[in-house]
Amino acid sequence: MSFHILVQQAVNGLVLGSVYGLIAVGYTMVYGIIGMINFAHGDVYMIAAYLTAIFLAALTLLGIQSPPLIILLVLLLTIACTALYGWSVERIAYKPLRHSTRLAPLISAIGMSLILQNYVRLSQGARSQGTPTLIHGSLRLFENGPDQFVQITYAQILIVVTAVIGMALLWYWIQATAMGRACRAVQQDRIMAALLGVDTDRVISVVFVLGASMAAVAGTLVTFNYGSFDFFIGFVIGIKAFTAAVLGGIGSLPGAMLGGLVLGLAESIFSGFVNTDYKDVFAFSLLVLVLIFRPSGLLGHPEVEKV
Amino acid sequence: MGSVLREALLTGLIALLLFAPLTGVSLSGYTLEGHWQRPLWLAGWVVLGRFALGWLLSRRRHVVAHARPHRRPSLLASWIEAHRTFLLLAMFVVALILPWFIGKYWLNVAILAWIYVLLALGLNIVVGLAGLLDLGFVAFYAVGAYGYALGFKYLDLSFWTALPFGALLAACFGVMLGFPVLRMHGDYLAIVTLGFGEIIRLVLNNWMEFTGGPNGVRVPFPSFFGIEFGRKAQPGHVTVHEYFNVPFSNEYRDIFLYLLLMIVVGGLVFVIRRLRRMPLGRNWEALREDEIACRSLGLQPVMVKLSAFGLGAMTGGVGGVFFAASQGFVNPTSFTFMESAHILAIVILGGMGSTAGVIVAAVILTVLPEALRDFAEYRGLLFGCAMVLMMVWRPRGLMGARRARFDRSGVA
To answer: Of A97, A123, A276, A305, which to mutate for an interface test with B (greatest number of B Cβ within 10 Å)?
Structure first.
């Protein structure tokens, strides 16, 4: 019995961790580029969940019935629209404060987070919304009787596979394209990159767009899998994704994904064997402990501060 | 002019793309309802706003080139400065007289306003003076409130014992959290305090046996040296209407609490003013401006920040005790992140570091939502907009305080 629970929670944790990882890369990229936390990032994910449901309903009304096609179209549409939101967040809350004190853009981002939450609440209502299930069926492993098996749904498999593909594409883009090279240059030294001709404003906007796109992937996948969301889901999952980014090493892309998986697994194991009521307390406490004892995270490197 | 118009139209198009999916339709079960006019209206307003802004900016670009070399301070500012003592005295008298005339409902609003003044002054020490972004300030507020509630429940603490107890308990929580955390960058501090706020709320919500969970805890109303404010007194005590031989009224206890809060706020303002002139206060503000320079001059950043953090937490605890006393009941739903955002909005709008600004903003941002209760659902949206706009246009807030470079009082 314990073995099946452990494996089942591990599977659940990997799926959850993939979602955290997708959102965490947004935090880690923005932090790497401008050295700040994008407090509105969790709410961008929330908007992606709503957009997923809206586009799904719209495409269904238009008569598209094939699940693979509708999933792909919803994913692409949600990414495009959410990317525009990510761009707008940067344009409104960060760009005017590029050379301001450190506190001002942080507070501006918090204000933007409040705006996004309340904007969605006012336009879509405060109650939970849902979507119909598109992906049915599951695999059963280690079956050993009517109550002893490990189940992996096809939706969960889709989440993990899409997350891996998304991360791979992002990694390739960062490592192998000119704009990716510009991003890495700005991350190392923004002023020097500007002096050498890199358009730093454009690079920063692109990073916000990419972060929002990854959050859109997460939002779409979670909505397809769980089918339930409201205007406040971005708050808690945003903190947890940031925990994942810190756990993996803020500023490190592989670290963000690794941090997401570790956090997802830890949280799932805790939920399965200890207490579901306190699993959020566990995640938040993990954040505090990581920042206290290993601020640079698993794959990060301690920052040498120049004065 | 053509470029301004083109820019406005482009902005409107982007706004239309943003607004259309989320405001143009709304989810209804698994299908959609159309609201096609909403995004068009919103985009229209965006075009108008952007055009006006662009026109103003281009016009300002010309005006600045011909700006006069010296600008006189406005007449209003001069008048306020000249009659400062009189104005303060007048406001004090008005605040003193107010509770006897405004009725029970607005009396409760006034009490809540004073509590928010208290909380905002506490957060202003942390955010405004020391420059540390604390997003979980509500946790200390909750610790104070539950300190009183659970102190009464398990230790039979009275209000007067719970007041220092709640304050010290919140301060201990603040120092306990702050000590390991204040070594970090400001961003990490912000999100750790955010997480801490959630931890406190979740523990209060889930620890049924000890805190009552979502059901909350009842709290007694304070007495005053044995004089009580209920209709009937406990054995051996006397009620206020018996003591003064006047008819019973429910408002007496609220008036009492109001006046008590005034005293506490006055004392806190006095302490803050004194602290700002002491080396400790100057250390806070110096750290806010340039931490590296301070460290090179020999300051201990962690201990200086910790003092601001602990003092802010203590003030939050006091606010919590008063909140519990005024409500007669505490419950975890009073201590969500939205409360922290509300208090932070007060500090930002009032002007980080400005005591007077924070007090004015606290009163306005507490009374205004009550006066405009029909627009209550827009409160969060307006707070968010106000925070973004304030940071973009007036980072120091409406009444932002900047310490004068030279103290003029000593110069002829």
So the answer is: A123
CA-nearest residue to A37 within chain B is B187
B411 — pLDDT class (breaks 50, 70, 90): very low
CB contact under 8 A, B127 and A53: no
Amino acid letter, B48: L
3-state SS assignment for residue A138: strand
> How far away is chain B from the Cα of A27, in angstroms, using its nearest Cα?
12
Q: State pLDDT tens for residues B292-345.
A: 888 888 888 888 888 888 999 999 999 998 898 888 888 888 888 888 888 888
**A 53-82 residues with CB < 8 A to B:** 53-55, 57-58, 60-61, 81
| Span of A270-284, B18-32, B146-160, B354-368 with lowest mean pLDDT | B18-32
Q: Which residues, 6+ apart, have CB-to-CB distance to B220 below 8 Å?
A: B152, B158, B159, B328
Q: What are the chain A neighbours of B381 within 8 Å (beta carbons)?
A: 114-115, 118-119, 122
What whole-number distance in Å separates Cα of residue B196 and Cα of residue A285? 8
Query: What pLDDT was estimated at residue A214?
Result: 92
Contact A27, A41 (CB under 8 A): yes
A96: which chain B residues are within 8 Å (Cβ-Cβ)?
Answer: 392
- State yes or no: ipTM above 0.85: no
CA of residue B82 relative to chain centroid, distance? 29
| Kind plus residue range of the DSSP H or E element containing A260 | helix A253-273
The whole-number pLDDT of residue B172 equals 92
Say yes or no for a CB contact (<8 Å) between A57 and B31.
yes
Between CA A52 and CA B122 the distance in angstroms is 42
Does residue B170 carry a pLDDT above 70? yes
Q: Does B208 touch chain A (CB under 8 A)?
A: no
User: Chain A closest CA to B373's CA: distance in Å?
Assistant: 16
- pLDDT category at A23 given cuts 50, 70, 90 is very high
Position A233 pLDDT exceeds 80: yes
